[in-house]
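Q: What structure does this chain adopt?
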Amino acid sequence: IMPVLIGWIIVYGGQVGLYSPELAYKMLMIVTLVLLALSGYILQSADIYSESITHHTVNRPSSYWQFNRAIQVFSGIQGGINSFFPSLLVLMFVGAEGQLGLLESITAGLSAILLYVIGRKAKPHHSISIVFVTAVIFFTGAILYNLSYGFFGALIYTITSNLTGTIAWTTVNSNTMEVLDREMRLGHNHNQYVLIFDNELWLNIGRIVGMLLFFGIAWFTSERLSLQIVPLILGLLQFVLLIPLNTLIKYTTSRS
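A:
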């Protein structure tokens, strides 16, 4: 609901002459920062148990945690780019914030329905199949996007990336939590906060690498090449991600 409301608020101001889209973006950014600061203040003032932490990253990680780090890097690369790439395509080829918000709301609703169905029917051992199917759909969308580069290509990529991204991330993240629990039970770096921080650290390293990849290709070659080749790279990385993910799924579904 929120993406479509925000999109049409941005459009409405320009249509009636109350404010420009540029001013609307700036005001939304200020509101977002204020809400973020308020959230941080509430968390800081909350009465939450604080555990003594002697280090922030996992020392002497197990081989399985190393596999998890690799998965987080691959997931972060895709997440870092797709945090802005579909919106960039819609604004370039569709050219309206209202349509962008509407499209994102529709795909978010479809993703929620698919997640509910998958969550009710799927078992842990189905995880690799789910991620494989999302990888095939995403890579197919990336190919179709390149073949029909423009308006329809942008719509195809936006729909496929939004639908598959949520499902794949949820599946991978669920397995990550299983790995975290297993590492704690076996006494490997038992502090959960260290494991969570280490997990987020490698995820954000992947996001940085992803954004550097996109802008690096655009800088050294051309914006057009970067816009076309990066989705294909992301699609291939999803298939590479299946290798460590398969190992971890066998690890988490096996008996302790």
